[in-house]
Every structure is written in structure tokens, then in C-alpha cells.
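Input (structure):
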């Protein structure tokens, strides 16, 4: 079977269950694979709309000769994609402009899933693969239920041969299970070829990533049919991606490469966060350390920004998946290595929360804490595994009053997330302790402290003088993203805490000659000169 030219792509999303806002969705991503066949129609299995939507839209933009159809059973979501005002159901910088150029030309949105599958030559399966909550491997293994459901649906509906493209992040050899299901349920004259084509997009920069990807990875069986299917998909990407960036590898290598990429990116974040703790204890500057280390071409500067911790739907889930895979393969040392990346991330969030409590005189009961940012990162409305949620939960446990502001996350999403981490607590009870504000300044009114949990650019430009005027004193800022100019805020009057400052909560200071001995809150004594002591962010002094 030689590769054929694709003319029509159908991206589909199924609502087998009442998926969460994130899990359901747009087979759109499928569009990515615009295959090369005579009749070109691509069906994109079940996808996460946050990345599937951008993928489909960019394929339509870059391949005007291919018709791209996004199919979803959720009428409300399809209506949003088709809305006259382009009120699309996700926030992604640049996406509206792309949809505006293509919709009605070669980009369409429909609820007719069956037709989409039947007309498609290429089917993308881009479904949610959350961590299992019960049963064997609970807390670590990937739940492949949605992958199986999508695969069985394809087998049930398809009436002609298809290339099925696995786009979800899955354990090694998942494609083998998919192929077994498809072949066991195939109809006469129906052949299924399986490819792995994982996404390497980042929310907030998905459009840029799609326009100029570092690489496109396509995994296939090393058979004549597998290579033909791989070439079909390669020709689609070649419409805008240089051939040297399209990597053709084995099916299992492709599946593992996606897990490995996410694990290693998360590892860098945990590594720099671990170093930030050392910096705080020694007086080293984590920004300077990261800059010096990142200047080495073998290391590079990306993902070396100390913060309150990583979040999102991928990093933690994929590392835990890798841990489970390692344990299943009887590699306990490998499993322990990767588990530590997640444990360091949890440590960083707990350490940050504790710092807030310790700094506010060891109690935040009844005190108002303004949390700026709820999304797991800037330029997205995605809140999955957001560090902000953990911080807020910790503040709730300390009986603080919390005020939240995020420019993109909806109130309904915030309440839903807080209910999830407060099982057994009614929404009314949560609302007695937590409020949602319409602006950063409103959130900070009468607060004891401001916590920057998401690196929105908007927070750089806040009228901090106005914020300071309306806060209780002393007014603290805890910069969990190293976003603001600490010196400027201190000049206004704020007490600023970030990740590179030597934190000394002085209990007593003893003058000996020209030096002070400072007894700190961590129960050790440090010899510091008077000038250094003056510049330390101390809470109080009792000189002796």
C-alpha cells in the first residue's frame, strides 16, 4: 500500500461519559496528522481540546487543500467553536486568529461522529489518560479506559481501511493493545495501521510550537505497511515542517520518547528548585546560579527557573506512569529515581506554604491571603495540578481567609477544583473561607500577604503602590514565580520573599567585635558582618 494524498480530515471527539472539562474532547488534535490518501478524511479520536483544537486549526491553515473537520458529541462545545464572535471554548494565544482564517473554508466543526469516522482515512486517538484512582497501579499507572473505548468505537463504525494515529501520552506498547482490539473486531476489507505521533506542545505557546516545532515524531512498525503509513503522515507535516525535523522511529520508541521528554523537563524544574533551597540557606542567588549553569551549551537555560513548583496535566502524571512502568519491569532503582522528581515538587510547594505561615508570625488563622493566579502557568486557563490549588488548600488548613484572582480561569472552574481538594466540604462552607475577585487590586484589599502563584505578565504591571496602601501592615509579598522586582516593592514598603534570598528570622543578635552572631528560626547560628545583616530580610531583632 503506497502513501496517498489527503484531501479531507475529520477530527472527532466522543463523549462516552461525562468527561471533565479537560478529559473530553476534540479529536481535533487528530487533524495534525493529515494523512496522505486518496480520499482524505481524518478522524481524530477523543482528544484534549486544549491541544487538539490548536493542532486542527494549524493543520487547516498550513494545508488549505485539506478539509479539516472537528467532530464532538458535545453540542455546546461545537456551538462555541462555530460562534459568530469566535468565542471558542479554550484560551490559547493566537488560536482565534487561526480559526478566523480557516473556519468555513477548510475547517469545520460537527457533532456527526459516525460520519467522521467512516469518511476518514486517518484517525487520531488523542484521549485523556489520567492516573488510575483505584485498582492495580492506583496512583501511578495510566488509566487507558478512554483509549480502549475510542479504539473499540473506531472498529465498530469503520467501513474501510484506516490509519489510526495514537496521539495520547501512553505507556510503551499501548499501540499493540490497540492493534489487537482493531484486528479482532475488523470487518472484511478493513485494515488498520497504527502510528504513534505524540504531541510536544506547551499550553500558552501551542500555536508557536505548531508553526515551528523542534521536531515531529512519528513511530511505526518497521514493516512495509507501517512505513507506508508513516510516509503518509510525514507528507502531511512536510507542508510546513522541514523534513529534517520529522523523525521516523519505531512504534515503542515513539511512545517512550514522549514520557521521557516530560520526565526530563520536570526533572530540570525539580533540580533547580532543590538548588533554590540551598541558595536560601547559604546566601547564593538562584538566578545567578541558573544563569551560570544554563550558559553551558550542554545544559542550556530552559526550565531552570526556580518556582513554587510545576503543574499541568502532563508532568506529574507521566512521571508516575514512568515509575509504574519501571516497577513493572522490576527496576526499583529506576522507579525510585523518577519518584524523587515528584517528591521534590511536593516538597517545594509544602516549603513555600510553610514559609508563608512562619513569616506571618507562625499563624495565618483569620488572616487574609491574596493568591494571584490559579492556572498552572501563564497564558492558559488550565488548572490541572496547579501549584496554586495546593497552596490554597494548605492555607485553608491553617484557617486563613483566601482571596483569589486569575485573569483567565472561570469562577466555576475554581470552585470545582476547590471542591475536589476538599471532599466532604460543601461549596457554601468553602465560600465562607475563600472568595474570588475580579481584579488583582480587589483581591489584595485588606490582605496580610500577597502570594504570586502564576506568572501572568499582568502581575508585573500591577499598581503596587495602590495595593500597598490598601493592605494591612506589615504587608508581605511571596513571589512564587520570581516575577516582580523585589527591590522596587521593598522601596514601596513591602516585605518581599522570593526563592533566592537567605531567609533569617532572627531570634537574637549578639555583637562580638565587628560581627554579629544571629540566632535564626532554623535553630543555628551564623556569623555575618553588620552590612550583610542589615540587608537580610529579617522579621524582627532583639539585640543583646
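Output (sequence):
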Amino acid at each position: 500500500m503506497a502513501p496517498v494524498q489527503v484531501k479531507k480530515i475529520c477530527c472527532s471527539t466522543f463523549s462516552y461519559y461525562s468527561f471533565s472539562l479537560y478529559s473530553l474532547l476534540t479529536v481535533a488534535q487528530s487533524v495534525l496528522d493529515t494523512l496522505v490518501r486518496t480520499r482524505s478524511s481524518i478522524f481524530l479520536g477523543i482528544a484534549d481540546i486544549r491541544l487538539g483544537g490548536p493542532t486542527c486549526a494549524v493543520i487547516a491553515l498550513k494545508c488549505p487543500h485539506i478539509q479539516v473537520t472537528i467532530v464532538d458529541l458535545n453540542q455546546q462545545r461545537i456551538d462555541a467553536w462555530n460562534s459568530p464572535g469566535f468565542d471558542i471554548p479554550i484560551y490559547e494565544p493566537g488560536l482565534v486568529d487561526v480559526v478566523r482564517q480557516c473556519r468555513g473554508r477548510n475547517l469545520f466543526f460537527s457533532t456527526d461522529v459516525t460520519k467522521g469516522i467512516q469518511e476518514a482515512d486517518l484517525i487520531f486517538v488523542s484521549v485523556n489518560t489520567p492516573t488510575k484512582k483505584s485498582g492495580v497501579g492506583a496512583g501511578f499507572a495510566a488509566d487507558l479506559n478512554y483509549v480502549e473505548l475510542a479504539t473499540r468505537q473506531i472498529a465498530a463504525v469503520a467501513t474501510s481501511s484506516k490509519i489510526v494515529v495514537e496521539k495520547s501520552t501512553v505507556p510503551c506498547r499501548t499501540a499493540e493493545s490497540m492493534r489487537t482490539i482493531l484486528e479482532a473486531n475488523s470487518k472484511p476489507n478493513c485494515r488498520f495501521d497504527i502510528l504513534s505521533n505524540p504531541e510536544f506542545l506547551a499550553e500558552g505557546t501551542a500555536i508557536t510550537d505548531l508553526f515551528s516545532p523542534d521536531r515531529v515524531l512519528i513511530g511505526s512498525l518497521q514493516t512495509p505497511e507501517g512505513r507506508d503509513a508513516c510516509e503518509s503522515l510525514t507528507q502531511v507535516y512536510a507542508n510546513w515542517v522541514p523534513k529534517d525535523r520529522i523523525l521516523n522511529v519505531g512504534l515503542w520508541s515513539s511512545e517512550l520518547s514522549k514520557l521521557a521528554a516530560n520526565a526530563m523537563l520536570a526533572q530540570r524544574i525539580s533540580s533547580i528548585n532543590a538548588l533554590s533551597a540551598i541558595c536560601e540557606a547559604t546566601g547564593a542567588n538562584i538566578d545567578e546560579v541558573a544563569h551560570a549553569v544554563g550558559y553551558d551549551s550542554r545544559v542550556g537555560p530552559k526550565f531552570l527557573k526556580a518556582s513554587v513548583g510545576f503543574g499541568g496535566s502532563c508532568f506529574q502524571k507521566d512521571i508516575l506512569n514512568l515509575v509504574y512502568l519501571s516497577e513493572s519491569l522490576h527496576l526499583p532503582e529506576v522507579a525510585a529515581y523518577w519518584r524523587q522528581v515528584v517528591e521534590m515538587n511536593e516538597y517545594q510547594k509544602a516549603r513555600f506554604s510553610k514559609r508563608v505561615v512562619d513569616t506571618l508570625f507562625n499563624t495565618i488563622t483569620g488572616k487574609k491571603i491574596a493568591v494571584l493566579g490559579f492556572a498552572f502557568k501563564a497564558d492558559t486557563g488550565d488548572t490541572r495540578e496547579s501549584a496554586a490549588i495546593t497552596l490554597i488548600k494548605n492555607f485553608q488548613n491553617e484557617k486563613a481567609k483566601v482571596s483569589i484572582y486569575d485573569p483567565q480561569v472561570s469562577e466555576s472552574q475554581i470552585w470545582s477544583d476547590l471542591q475536589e481538594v476538599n471532599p466532604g466540604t460543601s461549596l457554601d462552607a468553602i465560600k465562607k473561607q475563600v472568595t474570588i475577585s475580579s481584579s488583582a487590586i480587589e483581591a489584595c484589599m485588606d490582605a496580610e500577604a500577597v502570594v504570586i502563584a502564576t506568572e501572568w505578565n499582568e502581575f508585573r504591571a500591577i499598581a503596587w503602590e495602590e495595593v500597598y496602601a490598601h493592605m494591612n501592615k506589615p504587608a508581605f509579598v511571596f513571589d512564587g514565580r520570581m516575577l516582580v522586582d523585589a527591590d522596587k516593592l521593598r522601596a514601596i514598603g513591602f516585605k518581599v520573599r522570593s526563592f533566592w534570598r537567605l531567609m533569617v528570622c532572627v531570634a537574637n543578635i549578639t555583637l562580638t567585635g565587628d560581627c554579629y552572631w544571629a540566632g535564626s528560626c532554623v535553630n543555628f547560628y551564623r556569623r555575618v558582618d553588620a552590612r550583610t545583616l542589615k540587608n537580610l530580610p529579617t522579621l524582627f531583632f532583639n539585640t543583646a
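Notes: The chain is about 40% helix and 15% strand. The longest helix spans residues 251-282.
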